[in-house]
Amino acid sequence: MKKINFKILIITFIACLLPIISGILYYDMLPEQIAVHFDINNTPDRYASKEFALFGIPILLGILQVISCIISDLRSDGKTNIKFIEIVKWFIPLINFLVYFIIIQIGLGNTIDIRRTVLVFIGILFIILGNYIPKINFTSSKAIMHPAPKNEETYRKFSRILGYSFVFGGFLMALSTIFSPIISAILVIAIILSIIIELLYYLKQNK
Predict the structure, then answer these.
(1) What residues are paired with 49 via a beta bridge?
(2) Looking at residue 66, what is its pLDDT?
(3) Shortest CA distance to 73 belongs to which of 139, 146, 163, 8?
(4) Contact 35, 110 (CB under 8 A)
(5) CA–CA dist 15, 65 (Å, integer)
(6) Beta partners for residue 159, in sequence order
(7) Counting C-beta atoms within 10 Å of the first and last residue's C-beta, which end of the chain has fewer, N or C?
(8) What is the pLDDT of residues 28-75, one digit of tens each?
(9) CB atoms within 10 A of CB 53
(10) Could you tell me where the beta strands, DSSP code E, fall in 60-158?
(11) C-alpha–C-alpha distance, residues 31 and 146, integer Å
């Protein structure tokens, strides 16, 4: 019988809500409308109420985290690389911390290079994922991939290529921060397209 890891679920859910403490501390210092979205030049292009930015976003991400953990555990066969699954479960809480940090800093009027901060952060996540993807064995992959791989040789080749793509893509994202925003945008699009092509190749070979 498949079991839900309530320990990780509760810890990561609480982690999603922890930033609210800083929101309460800075509440009176922040404007009524806070920037929550920016273009590649760090220019705000979307705003939200202070209440939604400080409380709504963490709560929504916390709910998403709970759903993500439950689905992940229900799909797991119990043999999947546990360390890999636990690392993935921390992605939403970490992203929440990053988003909250940016929102607070911008709301306080501090200068922060959002493009560089986000790209370095995502680049690190890509590198971590890329290192663990090839370590998922063929049997475990059937529980977490859809459609499930039918041929072990095809899966092994695909997982190695995908792993390299994530690692290399992560380095490129971080490296792109020393160039202009348009270079970063081009590299991110190229990385996403390469991963999509690899996924399409997998689907074709897995028929």
Answers:
(1) 33
(2) 94
(3) 8
(4) no
(5) 10
(6) none
(7) N
(8) 999 999 888 887 777 888 888 999 999 999 999 999 999 988 887 777
(9) 24
(10) none
(11) 45
What pLDDT is stored for residue 5 in this prediction? 83
CB 177 within 8 A of CB 119: yes
Tell me the percentage of the chain whose pLDDT exceeds 90: 44
175 backbone dihedrals φ, ψ, rounded to 5°: -65, -30
Spatial distance between the Cα atoms of 170 and 188, rounded to a whole number of angstroms: 9
8-state DSSP, 37: E
- To the nearest 10°, the Cα dihedral for 30, 34, 39, 40? 20
Which residue shows structure tokens 């609480």? 14
- Could you tell me which residues come within 8 angstroms of residue 150 by beta carbon, excluding any fewer than 6 positions away? 206
- Residue 122 structure tokens: 């995502």
Phi-psi region of 30 (alpha: psi -120 to 50; beta: other; left: phi over 0): beta
Q: Which of 99-103, 148-152, 199-203 has the lowest average pLDDT?
A: 148-152
Burial of 3-29, coded b for 16+ CB within 10 Å and e otherwise, reads eebeebbeebbebbbebbeebeebeee
Average pLDDT over residues 161-169: 92
Residue 90's SS3 state is coil
Give the residue, 66 or 148, on which the prediction is more confident: 66
Question: Longest C-alpha distance within the chain, in Å?
Answer: 59
CA distance 199 to 191: 13
Query: What integer pLDDT is reported at residue 148 of this predicted model?
Result: 66
Sign of CA dihedral 76, 145, 120, 61: negative
